[in-house]
Amino acid sequence: xxxxxxxxxxxxxxxxxxxxxxxxxxxxxxxxxxxxxxxxxxxxxxxxxxxxxxxxxxxxxxxxxxxxxxxxxxxxxxxxxxxxxxxxxxxxxxxxxxxxxxxxxxxxxxxxxxxxxxxxxxxxxxxxxxxxxxxxxxxxxxxxxxxxxxxxxxxxxxxxxxxxxxxxxxxxxxxxxxxxxxxxxxxxxxxxxxxxxxxxxxxxxxxxxxxxxxxxxxxxxxxxxxxxxxxxxxxxxxxxxxxxxxxxxxxxxxxxxxxxxxxxxxxxxxxxxxxxxxxxxxxxxxxxxxxxxxxxxxxxxxxxxxxxxxxxxxxxxxxxxxxxxxxxxxxxxxxxxxxxxxxxxxxxxxxxxxxxxxxxxx
Length: 362
Ligand code: SAH
Fold this sequence. Notes:
The chain is an alpha/beta fold. It has helices at residues 9-20, 25-38, 52-55, 57-73, 91-100, 106-109, 119-128, 198-203, 214-230, 276-285, 296-302, 305-313, 318-332, 337-340; strands spanning 23-24, 80-85, 110-115, 134-137, 148-153, 162-167, 170-178, 184-190, 209-212, 232-241, 251-254, 257-259, 269-271, 274-275, 289-295, 341-347.
């Protein structure tokens, strides 16, 4: 399904409610985001939110170097699939390839694949990466087999979540309906086979909400199978919680402010926190080694972001040096992005320990 051909979110959502009486939170999120990511300007100061690669070039550079070291741990194959999920404006990939260019053989071996459904973002990515041969995909399934490194920043949080709500009669699925005035509002319908881990379900009070992403589960399984079959590693960075927990985290952001999820459909970015505990469980079950999640600030510091900051700022005018320093501080801030965002990696066990993760793999 291509985003460009999609019907506007409000129309698609209203049609679904007219047909079924309600729409699940996951389907609502998918339809709203299809319209949202099909628009022209999404990122940066003129857009709705700003992401780590747009804040500081050091972010993509550190990830690029991590990929090059991981490639060496894979035995430096002469050809490998270098895959980015949800590349936005292409900034992270451009910074990563520039930095990893310092490692002989890496860029030449990399066959670059971008997983991106938005046609307008694809054209921005094409511009940012015009020096490279790129293949685009709607999803991971069409990327050819072979050793691979997969990366994704703020991709998992855009994948739809279902919401389940504890009631006096057990668990119900949270849905969206139209009230008597035609306004969208939350409601619940009976749910079967609710995918909630038992310890969490047992502790849930009435009214408690549990979020679960079928799409993240499927993607994690798919990635783990690929890694076990063809070797390689995957690195995902996102905001979320390290262990599965109750709580509602669905949020909409428009022009850098929080926004009511049920209004201005398709005009705001909608995300949910990633349940990294669940990703870990699914990946371990499929046999991969799992590293993290660790806090983004710690991971970036372990990989030498401060050294890179000093290199970049050397001999620069004070204002430029201050900008570089502020960008790095924002990414690593223990009261902000540095702890809200977490980094997780999955790998074929033969790779050994991956850089930036102090612990042994799980
Ligand atoms: N990684 C970028 C952009 C993050 S925004 C950055 O850090 O700046 C999320 C990105 O994922 C966008 O490029 C969006 O178009 C893409 N995306 C969201 N859902 C997707 C899906 N289901 N399949 C493919 N791409 C998707």
